[in-house]
Design a protein that fits this description.
alpha/beta, 24 strands, binds iron/sulfur cluster, six-stranded mixed beta barrel, seven-stranded mixed beta sheet, globular, about 15% strand
Length: about 675
């Protein structure tokens, strides 16, 4: 159901799903989180969309699937004739599938002649991916937690976001690994830590440089690795020397004692150290460089692709489904590629915030149509009012969804999407180098999987040659062709099929063979990036103080974090699960007891939270004094009634990847 891709057993009685539990999959080994178990509620949910809907005079009416497909395709052809193919776009979310569905959506949009592929990745996850890729040529998809001697989590809370990952961390802890958690809040993982460093939001880079300085001074680095496999060490050493204990403690709020405990834990871990970065670091104006500074620690201890370190998985080797090589469309100006070239070069992602401006202004060219698959940008993008206005301005908005959403309500057509039990897609689990094929348990009339839907539209638009496979099963047969693994093998191994044995330190072997040791421009770990320098950015991961510290405003005295995960919800989803609404019934603003006392409020009271673009009203939750710092508040997104993205703004972002500032927004609070 989520990007953890746990294996499940599904039990049916008379065609009705009555229970779900964990299968003996490599990854979850029988375990499931509460969301996985409660999945049974979803399939017996009366709110599920099961018929195509068309908006007529402001109201949705049910129509036949063929009529919906014909009308959508006709409108797309009309827009293409008038404004060109690049006026068409697609946005892939995570509600209805993952990697394979993303690749199909990317294939579709290029097949019909537009470069405009969007997803939530231009504001979540990919910041970490780019930060580590700039440094080492690859995102650490699955760190080898179980064999680690020191695990450092940075702005990540696996118990809530990746429950199974937590089990591997706990396994390592039981075997003697040190667990260090760096976060602005005392999270569930921080409660398990040997060392908890409570940092001010957005100051992780200062802490990382302080750690780097001490690791070098204490001679706790892998000199051989640094000398032979990195570039830029001397510049880093000189730069990090400025991060004195006094400055780091003042800037981050972390004590000198904690700083030294972190350094000693990392230094005693040898190469078996993992720095695991969550989205707490990427939603800042200095996000990429803070992430790169953390990745420098991995470089200094030589932890890349080590057993117990940041393992770099090998791919499955299936066919390439996207058309970026076969049908490149750079000349059509993918939206945001000029403004955020790093984002586009590394991920071929168009920038969603730029898209909103472009829809509204029609500059430099009009964007008129969007197919949104399992995403809810009105709830998840910053500046929701602008996003809603942009969605309403589109000439054609098609949303494929499981249940109604804030974005679907604005659509011209809402189509029923297939859930995870109604499609067959492959998932690769990097940690074990395992691939699994999901078992299509059932099909429902009018509910198409993404392949079928995009196949049908592509054929109506004259791009059928790119969708020659009759259905997703035929596509899967083609995808596995070069791997030597058959679909039958995958079906016979529902617990996962290990496509390659795990191999560590692959960089050493590559260097011996005269190949690039790392997949970077220089073939080395790039502490200093000439590529970034060539684009006008700093070559080193320099630190910049967050705006709320550097430009404090009396009018907006609080720094607001958004997006902390609740265990029962997945991103903005699962609100239709009745048992979850009982557990966590509404959005709330979490605050320190001293702030609550100063405002004269207690838990359950309502307050108005105001930023420079607007305000929302929301219930107060006063937390324990250790849980959140004074002056910092947290609001989880995804609540229609108290949508925090009505007050996050889209004009503050990281200049390298364009990620919005969502974890240190300057706000004020008033008692209602
Ligand atoms: S972590 Fe939970 S929701 Fe995600 S796949 Fe596993 S059981 Fe399902």
């Amino acid at each position: 159901m989520c990007d953890d891709h746990c294996g499940i057993n599904v039990y049916t009685e008379n065609g009705k799903i009555v229970d779900i539990d964990g299968s003996n999959h490599y990854w979850n080994k029988g375990r499931l989180c509460v969301k996985g178990r409660a999945g049974v509620d979803f399939f017996n949910n009366e709110n599920r969309i099961l018929k195509p809907l068309k908006k007529v005079d402001g109201k949705f009416v049910e129509i036949e699937l063929e009529q919906a497909l014909d009308e959508i395709a006709a409108k797309m052809l009309e827009i293409k004739a008038k404004d060109g193919a690049r006026a068409l776009s697609i946005w892939k979310g995570e509600a209805v599938g993952f990697a394979q569905q993303e690749e199909i959506a990317r294939r579709f949009i290029h097949a019909i002649g537009s470069p405009n592929y969007f997803s939530n990745d231009s504001q979540c996850f990919v910041g970490r991916w780019i930060g580590y890729s700039l440094m080492a040529g690859s995102w650490m998809a699955q760190p080898d937690f179980a064999n680690s001697k020191c695990i450092v989590t940075w702005g990540a809370n696996p118990p809530n976001a990746h429950p199974n990952m937590t089990q591997y961390i706990m396994e390592a802890k039981q075997k003697g690994a040190k667990l260090v958690c760096i976060d602005s809040r005392l999270t569930n993982i921080a409660r398990q830590a040997h060392v908890f460093a409570q940092v001010k939001p957005g100051t992780d880079g200062a802490l990382a440089h302080g750690i780097i300085r001490l690791l070098i001074e204490k001679d706790m680095i892998d000199k051989d690795f640094v000398e032979n496999y990195t570039v830029g060490f001397e510049q880093l050493k000189e730069y990090s020397a400025k991060f004195t204990e006094e400055f780091v403690c003042q800037e981050t709020g972390v004590t000198a004692e904690i700083l030294h405990q972190i350094v000693d834990a990392i230094g005693s871990g040898g190469n078996q150290v993992i720095n695991y970065v969550g989205n707490g670091l990427e939603h800042h104006e200095n996000g990429i460089n803070n992430i790169r500074a953390v990745a420098c620690i991995d470089a200094l201890v030589g932890g890349f692709d080590q057993k117990g370190g940041n393992f770099m998985p090998e791919g499955f080797g299936q066919q390439e489904l996207t058309l970026y090589h076969e049908l490149p469309l750079m000349h059509l100006d993918p939206i945001g590629a000029d403004k955020f070239p790093v984002l586009y070069e590394y991920r071929q992602e168009c920038h969603t915030m730029t898209a909103m401006d472009q829809i509204l202004s029609e500059e430099p060219y009009p964007l008129k149509s969007m197919i949104i698959i399992g995403a809810n940008p009105v709830s998840t993008n910053p500046n929701s009012a602008k996003v809603a206005a942009a969605m309403e301005k589109l000439e054609l908005l098609v949303v494929r969804e499981l249940v109604m959403s804030d974005t679907a309500e604005l659509a011209d057509y809402v189509l029923p999407a297939a859930s995870y039990l109604e499609r067959a897609e492959m998932h690769c689990h990097g940690m074990h180098q395992v691939v699994t094929l999901t078992n299509r348990l059932t099909t429902i009339p009018d509910v198409q999987d993404e392949y079928q839907f995009l196949h049908d539209i592509a054929h109506r638009l004259g791009a059928g040659e790119y969708f020659p496979w009759e259905n997703e099963d035929a596509l899967n047969e083609w995808l596995v062709e070069p791997t030597g693994v058959t679909i039958e093998t995958l079906k016979a191994n529902p617990e996962g099929y290990q496509y390659k044995p795990l191999k560590y330190k692959k960089w050493e072997e590559r260097a011996k063979n005269g190949e690039k040791a790392f997949k970077t421009r220089t073939g080395k770990v790039e502490i200093y990036s000439e590529y970034l320098e060539s684009l006008g950015y700093e070559g080193l991961p320099v630190y910049k103080s967050p705006d709320y510290i550097e430009n404090a405003e009396v009018e907006f005295p609080f720094a607001m974090i958004t997006g902390a995960r609740k265990l029962v919800y997945y991103h903005s989803r699962n609100k239709e699960f009745k048992r979850f609404r009982t557990a966590v019934p509404n959005g709330e603003v979490e605050m320190h007891p001293a702030d609550a006392a100063a405002l004269g409020v207690k838990s359950g009271d309502r307050v108005k939270v105001t930023s420079k673009i607007g305000s929302i009203e929301i219930e107060v939750s006063v937390r324990h004094e250790n849980e959140i710092m004074p002056g910092i508040i947290q609001i989880t997104h995804g609540w229609k009634e108290s949508n925090v993205n009505m007050i996050t703004h889209d004009d503050k972002f990281d200049p390298i990847d364009g990620f919005p500032l969502m974890k240190a927004v300057k706000v004020n609070i008033q008692k209602i």
